[in-house]
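Lecture notes, continued. The same structure-token format from the folding unit now serves as the input rather than the output. Read the line below as a description of shape only.
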């Protein structure tokens, strides 16, 4: 069923979400704080609006912004809840802290708008392929169901994980596992390299073992061939790890492993080794620390 949807925040993820909605036949309004980001989407049938108030005229509003601060600005003064028109449901796909999601939900509820936290698992290319999944939570079951209905035109599955900000916590936990796994892959790849093991062969074996996963297979080219085209930045991973560490501190849950990996990504960002690259560039830092010079694998990487 065609629905009027507004997409707020046209970074790489917001653009991918809007593209999927347009392809499904929805009427899509788009807004971004910086001008020019909407041109590509307008050429595909989207309507660019100049203000958040204009975006809020849509029945469903989907936001995908940078962080907690950017999300807070959406429901602040002159935000999307300040005008005479408001969406029926506000779906936020940003990876944020649970407290930021709760603040947005409270502001929305005070304005008569149902809020659903719906962070996405998958980079923009995964979204474009229709393979992304979403974690959903909210206090209005009808709004959560409506969110799931809309997002079936975007990804392959949505999982209702609870009420309130539960989805925000699920996404932080998931990204913490990704960060930890990337640290482990980087360490064992450099260890194997030092011992004379080709990284392509190592990854092929791991991928076919009990610990192989879609993630290890997806990152095989990064580890073996140093294909570090950015799908998720080191800065983004550091942000999410910090949010996970903060959540653990607030809930009195020790998180020594997450904390240690956050330090490694902070070092990567500070060093500049990962600038403009994927978060898998962590392997460059591990190699530098070990005094190992990496070259592309000489073994063919299995598809």
């Amino acid at each position: 069923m065609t629905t009027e949807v507004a997409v707020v925040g046209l970074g790489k993820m917001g653009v991918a979400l809007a593209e999927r909605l347009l392809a499904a036949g929805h009427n899509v309004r788009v807004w971004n704080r910086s001008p020019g980001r909407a041109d590509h989407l307008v050429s595909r049938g989207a309507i660019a609006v100049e203000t958040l108030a204009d975006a809020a005229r849509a029945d469903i509003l989907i936001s995908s912004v940078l962080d907690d601060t950017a999300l807070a600005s959406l429901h602040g003064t002159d935000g999307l809840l300040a005008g005479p028109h408001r969406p029926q449901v506000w779906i936020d796909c940003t990876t944020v802290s649970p407290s930021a999601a709760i603040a947005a939900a409270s502001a929305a509820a005070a304005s008569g708008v149902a809020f659903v936290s719906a962070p996405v698992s998958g980079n923009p290319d995964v979204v474009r392929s229709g393979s992304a999944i979403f974690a959903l939570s909210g206090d209005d079951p009808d709004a959560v169901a409506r969110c799931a209905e809309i997002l079936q035109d975007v990804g392959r599955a949505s999982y209702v994980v609870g009420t309130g900000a539960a989805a925000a916590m699920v996404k932080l936990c998931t990204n913490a596992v990704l960060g930890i796994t990337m640290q482990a892959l980087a360490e064992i790849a450099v260890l194997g390299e030092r011992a004379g093991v080709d990284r392509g062969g190592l990854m092929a074996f791991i991928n076919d073992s009990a610990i192989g996963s879609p993630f290890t297979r997806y990152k095989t080219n990064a580890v073996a061939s140093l294909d570090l085209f950015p799908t998720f930045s080191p800065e983004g991973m550091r942000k999410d790890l910090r949010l996970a560490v903060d959540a653990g501190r607030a809930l009195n849950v020790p998180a020594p492993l997450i904390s240690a990996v956050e330090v490694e990504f902070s070092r990567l960002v500070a060093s500049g080794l990962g600038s403009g690259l994927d978060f898998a560039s962590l392997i460059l830092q591990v190699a530098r620390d070990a005094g190992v010079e990496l070259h592309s694998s000489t073994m063919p990487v299995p598809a």
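Point for the exam: The domain at 169-290 is CATH 1.10.1040.10 (N-(1-d-carboxylethyl)-l-norvaline Dehydrogenase; domain 2).
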